Amino acid sequence: MSSISGPPSPSDRYRAAANRTAEAKTYLGSFARTLDFELDDFQREACRSLQEGRGVLVAAPTGAGKTIVGEFAIYLALQRGLKAFYTTPIKALSNQKFTELSAKYGAPNVGLLTGDTTINGDAPVVVMTTEVLRNMLYADSETLGDLGFVVMDEVHYLADRFRGAVWEEVIIHLPSEVQVASLSATVSNAEEFGAWLDTVRGDTDVIVSEHRPVPLWQHVMVGREIVDLFAGDTTFDEIAPALPDTEVPDLGEAEETSASESRAVSGKSAKRAVEATVRHAVTGPEFEVNPDLLAMARSESRMNVNARYSHGGRSRRRQDRQREERQTAQRSPVRRASRPQVIDSLNRQGLLPAITFIFSRAGCDAAVAQCAASGLWLTTEREQQIIAQRVDEASHEIPADDLDVLGFWGWRDGLIRGFAAHHAGMLPTFKEVVEKLFADGLVKAVFATETLALGVNMPARCVVLEKLEKFNGEAHVNITAGEYTQLTGRAGRRGIDVEGHAVVLWQPGTDPAAVAGLASRRTYPLNSSFRPTYNMSINLIAQFGRVRAREILESSFAQFQADRSVVGLARQVRGREESLAGYAKAMECHLGDFSEYSKLRRELSDAEQHAARDHQRARRSRVSDSLTRLIPGDVISVSGGRLAGYAVVLEVDPNAREPRPSVLTADNQLRRLGVHDIDAPVSAVTRIRIPKSFNAKVPKSRRDLAASMRNAVNGDSSRQRRNSRHEDFGLGSRAQDQERKIAEIRRALRAHPCHGCSDREDHARWSERWWKLRKETDGLVRQIQGRTNTIAKTFDRVCDVLSTYGYLDTHDDGRVTISADGQRLRRIYGEKDPLISQSIRQGAINDLDAAELASLASTLVYQAKREDRGLRPRMPSVSLETAVDIVIREWSRLEDTEEQNRLPLTAEPELGLMWPMYKWAKGRHLQEVLSGTDLAAGDFVRWAKQVVDLLDQLAKIPQLDSRLARICRESIDLVRRGVVAYSTVA
Asked: Of 481, 692, 918, 926, which one has the fewest beta carbons inside 10 Å?
């Protein structure tokens, strides 16, 4: 592996000059002459490897110029009369790269394929999303003919848990004669990834560059003042190399270490010791965190401690104490700058253009509104005229009726002022305009979510991070060092800026040492997320047969990493076996066999836990049965849990795998009631009639129905709340047997000789350690067994499911072939591919017209942001009602089958987009389509394009009935109109 991390020595420069002289007559020399800058050493070395017929993995920081290597691969292909594919992880980056390459090589020579867009697909250079190339490989597309090079930009996407497997599929299945240029952010295990590439692709050189061509300075903005994070002149390049092998601890880990080493240290001294520990581990003694920032953090901590303990009195109401705690928790000696003030400060210090990362779409839009309301202007009159002209040109094809719902006028006003938002909820056209205006220096400030950091080329002079935590879909978590590097890597424009700047805004509770830890750890491991899917498995079997397909999957990076990890696990097992022998010696007892006595103690503990679990299981079963018997209109009394009180049942779903009736509580709240929400079976205490006009989305309807429920309950004097605290939930004699067994073990314990040992509890502690370590060691042994052939075992389970559904035929001679239904599944690509295939198989789309088909397709691609399914909506038509019933039934059956085969479960179909998609396919205006929903216009367009992509896949299935294929194409035409059809890529 080649690692280029610093300035070359004189001998290196001499050797490089000699090489350049020799290379002047080569393809690399002629390519270099087309550039208006000198190639860096890592770029030259990677290009040389490609020229000599080897593949390359190039890992370098954002903005270092990795894409030059990809462009040289394209140049080589064109010079040799071959094709080159340039793959990207996202459509926005594909569009951007298509525009760049078209300008460089001419529009006739460059094509674009992104699933919903096809431009000049037979060109010698084609830019595409990675999924498109995967689909072409499985379909054995003729476009693959004469393919010489594939550039895989942002190949570290391979670690993405949702889409990462696609990168491995492509790398494994590309023809052996194709050279692959893999471009990655700096990862800590590049050598491991390169070794795998070498195994599956042949000769592959790994080139790692740690050097940023534009120095990056780290700052913290305290109020409106920008303060250096590190004491002294310390740039990004200087931080990590000081301690290259040091693992930087989290602040919490450092606190635990400090506490364990010295219990007697005072709180203040311990805090300073922690800061010193982290500061030294992060940056080394010569790169200290700015002491002014550390002093400010201590001052803030003291202020909050004093505020917390300055209010005495246990008699004060709990609500008052909680309110004061919330208020005092936000105290800080620093007055936080507003967003307009932050931008103004950056502007006065010459740090624009800047990207401010806000991990919230609403936050990005609010920032633009706040800047506009403050009267902030960042543009000159001439720039305002240019921006207005370009915005109007880019949007002139958007229907005038849609401009208001798209927020066009506020967006346009912000752009003219010099600032804009950038997030996935925006219309793609709007995002492209923002990107181009920012790249041209006309827009000076962009407020963006983290999606902008994932490949879109928008470098800035400065990057601002509002917070160091984000919501990951489940909880608010701190960003990782890798994410920090990816975000701040946008700062510093090569050839424009002398230096880049990363600024973290001071928030109450900011820890400068923790920020320094993020700034110093700029690499992160690349871990495979690969697993065999239904479509992948059936396509491999179709091409290679089951035996060969199994062998191919075992060559994945996931299996490569698992095999390597076994060596380390085996070493851990050997070390733990030695410790177990020492523990066994320490628990010896002179009165008897203490291991036997210890075993009795564990049997007693296990028996008691088993009895408790049985009780819980029986409770759950009885509760589930009681929920199943409920019908709309039943009023129930929930005796415990967070929904305690009375509730009326609104809707039940007989097809649900687990009963979760929708209820309205006495305080007018809509909830889903599951077995985890109640602690005892429920039954109807009375019944009320639910009016036909009841609408759960209307607050007045909910209030009226809740009032009716309360009246019914108050008028029913026979109702009783059940006390189930001591119920056995039907266990009967089984519970008695368990109690009898527990009593017997206790008698055996008291009768054992070791029970009377004066050192019994000391022996017991050593025994507990032995049992705990034995359990951990056995777990490691199982890991070793489980990691052997893990991918192949998953493949076998996938094949079992495919056989269950009749997609695979097994012959008497052991051969496995694809059935007619399996051939249909081969052409369906998506997370719900078997569900889509089964729904078609069971006739879900047979009676639908084009608009209804678009609506149904949305249930198979749409993913709600949070689990907020609410009530099942009324369907637009009887045909759709029947079709949805089929889809839900097939999903439930598929989930049961997957659970039996220990496979990841297919996500439940989402019905939240059905009405908007139906209205859109019926020709309604965008404003009417989005009315009453929480969908942003950009989100709707994105999901609509995915619906188009799925319908296009269905239309191209060879075995599909010609009438259904025609309806699919009609449905595509209905959806692909207006803002969905409009694109600036042309």
From this structure: 692
Q: Which ranges of 80-226 does DSSP label H, i.e. alpha helix?
A: 91-105, 130-139, 165-173, 190-201
Give every strand in the sheet of 225-228, ordered side by side: 225-228, 216-222, 500-505, 462-465, 354-357, 445-448, 419-422
Contact status, residue 528 vs residue 554, Cβ threshold 8 Å: no
Tell me the C-alpha distance between 840 and 732, whole Å: 48
Mean pLDDT over each residue of the chain, to the nearest integer: 80
pTM: 0.68
Hey, what are 301's tokens? 């901590």
> Tens digit of pLDDT for each residue in 899-918?
999 898 898 898 889 999 99
Cα–Cα distance, 351 to 816 (Å, whole number): 64
Report how far residue 100's alpha carbon sits from residue 83's, in angstroms, rounded to the nearest whole number: 18
Angle (CA) 257-271-237 rounded to 5° is 80
What whole-number distance in Å separates Cα of residue 321 and Cα of residue 308? 10
Give dist(CA 150, CA 175) in Å, integer: 11
Tell me if 615 sits within 8 A of 731, measured CB to CB: yes
Q: Residue 576 to residues 31, 333, 579, 599, 643: CA-CA distances in angstroms?
A: 58, 51, 5, 20, 47
Helix boundaries (H) for 587-732: 594-628, 699-715
Number of H helices, E strands in the chain: 37, 25
- Are 851 and 971 contacting, i.e. CB atoms less than 8 angstroms apart? yes
Per residue in 684-711, pLDDT (tens digit) is 888 898 888 888 888 888 888 988 888 8
Give the tokens for residue 177.
């004669």
- Calculate what percentage of the chain has a pLDDT beyond 90: 24
* CB within 8 Å of 110: residues ≥ 6 apart: 98, 101, 102, 120, 123, 125, 126, 127
CA distance 952 to 113: 14
Nearest 10 degrees: Cα torsion 566, 568, 570, 574 = -170
pLDDT at 321 over 50: no
End-to-end CA distance of the chain: 41
Which residues does residue 589 pair with via DSSP β-bridges, in sequence order?
A: 592
- For 800-818, write each residue's pLDDT tens digit: 999 999 999 888 777 888 9
Q: Residues 607, 734: contact at Cβ < 8 Å?
A: no
CA distance 590 to 748: 19
CA distance 677 to 662: 12
Question: Any idea how long the chain is?
Answer: 986
Q: Which pairing describes strands 225-228 and 354-357: parallel, antiparallel, or unpaired?
A: unpaired
Strands 816-818 and 634-638: unpaired
Assess contact for 655 and 894: CB atoms under 8 A: no
Is the CB of residue 131 less than 8 Å from the CB of residue 115? yes
pLDDT tens for residues 150-176? 999 988 888 877 788 888 889 988 988
The residues, ordered by sequence, that sit 6+ positions from 779 with a Cβ below 8 Å of its Cβ are none
Whether 822 contacts 834, CB under 8 Å: no
Are β-strands 634-638 and 645-651 bridged in parallel, bridged antiparallel, or unpaired? antiparallel
pLDDT tens digits, residue range 815-844?
Answer: 888 998 898 898 888 889 999 999 999 999
Residue 317 φ then ψ, to 5°: -60, 145
Q: Quote the tokens at residue 122.
A: 């037979």
SS3 (DSSP) at 625: helix
- What is the C-alpha to C-alpha distance for residues 742 and 617, in angstroms, rounded to an integer? 19
> In angstroms, rounded to a whole number, what is the distance separating the alpha carbons of residues 404 and 937?
11
Which distant-in-sequence residues (6+ apart) come within 8 Å of 238 by Cβ?
Answer: 287
733-751 and 594-628 helices, crossing angle to 10°? 170
Please give the Cα distance from 151 to 166 (Å, whole number): 14
SS3 content of the chain, % helix, strand, coil (to 5): 55, 10, 35
Q: What is the DSSP string of 921-937?
A: HTT--HHHHHTTS---H
Cα separation, 320 vs 562, whole angstroms = 54
